[in-house]
């Protein structure tokens, strides 16, 4: 059984230490400007501000199995709008990939976020293997975002 561990705002530095490694190692970013942005104060301060607001809070979570952290995610659920849960990051640590672990983690995230008002899910993705994963759990293409990155939705 996969459990969700919320990361409180006062403990986000540990998350940041693995976040950039994930973005680079999984080939999500490779441009020096992107690396600088995602490791910089501007991006991190915005996320922190969104974590402490009262409505439509930003969440950082770990996925846990048998008390071991096996992955992580960042998301916002917009209760003040239509319940969209926008998943910014979602990954299973490399040593835990395979055997349907990504599917199990997303099922746990769905259950967890629905209890907090999520009614549907959206994510952007460019990598072919990620797109295959999202489609395999029911996401379909849904246009592009402001950066012309492909969007996927699951209702």
UniProtKB/TrEMBL annotation:
Gene3D superfamilies: 3.40.630.30. SUPFAM superfamilies: Acyl-CoA N-acyltransferases (Nat). GO terms for molecular function: acyltransferase activity, transferring groups other than amino-acyl groups. It holds the Pfam family Acetyltransf_1. Residues 2-155 form the N-acetyltransferase domain. It comes from the Bacteria. This is GNAT family N-acetyltransferase. It comes from Pseudobutyrivibrio xylanivorans.
């Amino acid at each position: 059984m996969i459990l969700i561990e919320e990361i409180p705002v006062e403990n986000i530095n540990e998350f940041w230490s693995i976040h950039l490694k994930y973005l680079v190692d999984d080939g999500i970013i490779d441009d020096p400007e992107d690396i600088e942005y995602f490791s910089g104060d501007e991006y991190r301060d915005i996320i922190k501000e969104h974590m402490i607001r009262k409505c439509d809070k930003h969440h950082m979570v770990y996925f846990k199995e048998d008390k071991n952290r096996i992955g992580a995610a960042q998301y916002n659920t917009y209760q003040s709008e239509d319940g969209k849960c926008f998943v910014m990051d979602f990954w299973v640590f490399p040593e835990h990939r395979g055997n349907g672990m990504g599917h199990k983690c997303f099922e746990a995230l769905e259950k967890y976020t629905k209890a907090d008002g999520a009614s549907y899910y959206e994510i952007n993705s460019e990598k072919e293997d990620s797109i295959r994963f999202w489609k395999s759990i029911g996401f379909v293409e849904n246009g592009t975002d402001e950066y012309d990155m492909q969007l996927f939705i699951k209702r």
